Amino acid sequence: MEQPERESREPITPPGWAEDELQEAYRNWIQQQAFFDEATDPAVVDQAILLWHEAEVRYRQCLKRRRQHGGF
């Protein structure tokens, strides 16, 4: 009985695992902190807080995924 040919597949890199995605999330987090630091108008401050929080959550998720997949 012949064995079916197996496709050679590249390993799938989970989101948050790739080094550039982690670096991108970190850079975005730092940029959002700077945006918050420079905001003066109350409406802009509120927006800056939301953007900073979202960037921090994304960065933490990337770190968590990397740890789960043996990256640290």
Account of the 3D structure:
By secondary structure, this protein is mostly helical. The chain has a domain at 19-68. Helix content is 65%, strand content 0%. It has two helices and no strands. The model has no long low-confidence stretch (mean pLDDT 82).
- The topology string of helices and strands comes to HH
DSSP summary: helix tally? 2
Structural class: mainly alpha
For the largest beta-sheet, the strand count, sense and barrel status come to: none
Poorly predicted runs of 5 or more residues = none
Please indicate the percent range of residues in DSSP E strands (runs of 2 or more). Answer: under 5%
The shape is: elongated
What is the residue-mean pLDDT, rounded to a whole number? Answer: 82
Q: What is the end-to-end distance? A: 44 Å
Residues in helices, as a percent range: 55-70%
Write the layout of secondary structure elements.
Layout: H1 19-38, H2 42-68
Helix pairs in contact: 1-2
Task: Give a nutshell description of this structure.
By secondary structure, the chain is an all-alpha fold.
List the main descriptive attributes of the protein structure presented here.
mainly alpha, 2 helices, elongated, 0% strand, 72 residues
